[in-house]
Design goal:
Blueprint lengths: L2 E3 L8 E5 L10 H7 L4 E5 L19 H14 L3 E6 L1 H12 L4 E7 L12 H22 L3 H13 L9 H9 L1 H12 L5 H4 L6 E6 L4 H13 L3 E6 L6 H4 L1 H29 L1
Parallel strand pairs: 2-3, 2-4, 4-5, 5-6, 6-7
Antiparallel strand pairs: 1-3
Helix pairs in contact: 1-11, 2-3, 4-5, 4-7, 5-6
Amino acid sequence: MPEFKNDQISSAPVVVALHSSASSGAQWRTLAVDCAGQMEVIAPDLPGYGQASLTRDISQKGVAAAAAPVIELIERNGKPVHLVGHSNGAGVALKIAMVRPDLVKSLALYEPATFHFLNHGCSIDRALFRQISRLAGLVSVSLAFGNPDRGMRAFINFWNGDGAWESLPDKSRNKFASQARSIIADFNGGFAESWSLKDLGAINLPTLMMSGGRSPDIAERVTSHITSAFRDVRTEAFPALGHMAPVFNPDVINPVILRHIARVEGADAASSARMRSAA
């Protein structure tokens, strides 16, 4: 699959960074630069974005269709990786950790766009699920009627704040409108998932969960639920930042991700040293 990566160092830890919807692997370019000389960063284009075709394996259901090419990439790499994900990419990272935990050393997730379980929650959860379902429906109907701009305007303003779409130049609006079909595929894949929050308790990986204080309510709700479900989790809150902080504020987010990975690598090194000493 098409991907962006920094210079490879064979002995270095490998980070696979998964982008949000309406983005591409290039979203993580700054992370790759920040990691240069310390870690290898691979940032693939998820299906329907960048240079990656939207065509998916129809035998794969739900988010598994987007996760499959990433799993293949990690298998080719030959060793477990640190998975980093933002929004939809964080949802894909979760799926990979659930089905192939052997391929993952740690998780660093910023506000996973994973909504299906809300429909089985309390009244607040269900109301938020209806809200995101309406947004997905608007994107789909607008595309069907030949006016993708209308749906994407709602999508961009929902995640970035009112007026975000209106502030964009025409070139950017046209680019986002061209991605409406990919956005719909992301929504449909996520809504088709069936795992429960209880299932996340089986993931025994060092996990960093990040969230912004200016994100939509549903992002905060989902992040809180998922955080509570994990066994080994640290949290980082950014009160002044929103849902798109990994894109717009990498100078704040990336150092937190790197500290998390360094902590995991340090713990692994210490464990290996103890094992050698015992032997």
